[in-house]
Write a structure and sequence with these properties.
It contains three helices and four strands, in the order ααββββα. The model has no long low-confidence stretch (mean pLDDT about 90). Strands 1-2-3-4 form a four-stranded antiparallel sheet. The protein is globular and about 40 Å long. A hairpin with a 3-residue loop joins strand 1 and strand 2. It is an alpha+beta fold. It has a single domain, classed as Viral Envelope Glycoprotein, domain 2. The termini are far apart.
């Protein structure tokens, strides 16, 4: 599935794809919001919620520059253990 195909789906179908095929990569938060990053095939989906858990929305993208918020929180140590 491509980013354009994903974006063309109805919200319910996008949620289903994210649940079945999305791999949780990282989380981040600030005073008001929690951001969860998932990878689906060759693109990323960011799920934005309020601190109380209320869903605010999602955003799908391919630009690696959009990952900056998450880079410090990604633990790659399990990958390094095999080298």
């Amino acid at each position: 599935m491509t980013l354009n195909q994903y974006n063309s789906l109805a919200e319910e179908k996008r949620a289903f794809i994210l649940e079945k095929a999305g791999v949780h990569i990282a989380s981040s938060h600030n005073k008001y919001y929690v951001f969860n990053l998932y990878q689906v095939n060759t693109f990323y989906v960011e799920v934005i919620s309020k601190i109380d858990g209320t869903l605010c929305g999602t955003r799908a993208f391919t630009a690696l520059s959009q990952l900056d918020r998450y880079l410090n929180g990604i633990d790659i140590s399990p990958l390094m253990a095999n080298t």
